[in-house]
Design goal:
About 15% of the residues lie in helices and about 50% in strands. The protein is built from two helices and eight strands. Mean pLDDT is about 75; it is low at about 10-20, about 20-35 and about 50-55.
Length: about 200
Amino acid sequence: MIWASRRRARSRHKNNNRFGQKPVNLLPPVAYTGLKPVLFLGAGLLLYPSLTTADMLAVTLGRGNIYSQGSAAVFLSYQKEAPKLFNRESLYDLTFGYWSGSNHNSALTLARVVRWKLSPETYFAGTLGIGVVDRVTDHLGTQGQFTIRLAVGRKFGKYDLSVGESHYSNGKTALKLGWHGPNTGEDFLTVMLAREF
């Protein structure tokens, strides 16, 4: 009898908060099934540097925002030191990305990263590049895309951690290009972990 009443109390506690209402999930459910292989590959590259000879490998995880609400994204990047640009530290960036949701897609981009040092270990970074997506969607009207990422980061020895906003778009609105189809773009709040080799 005591155990039964405790079980009932626990089940009420699981389904209701202290006011007797069901909890509200503010974030929509996201299917991560397509992301698993990419996550395992990224983790392997970060943990076993002998598999590659890149200057820097990065794994970036993101959550969709603005028009991309409810999607999750993962990006794998190879970054190589580049000549200074605007007298600032610069990198070449080759990235493969995938995002889930109703407008799921994959992308391959080539970009240039410029970093402004805020202190010896912290920086602000701007990334601008071009790329291609796997398919046209309700948000991306062409397969050719531009990509932008603005981030703030910090170096921890050979590791680099940054938080930023990534945007994919065909530039139709900003560049006044006459392309047909939608151009709401894809936007992600991202966290990037990179390792230098």
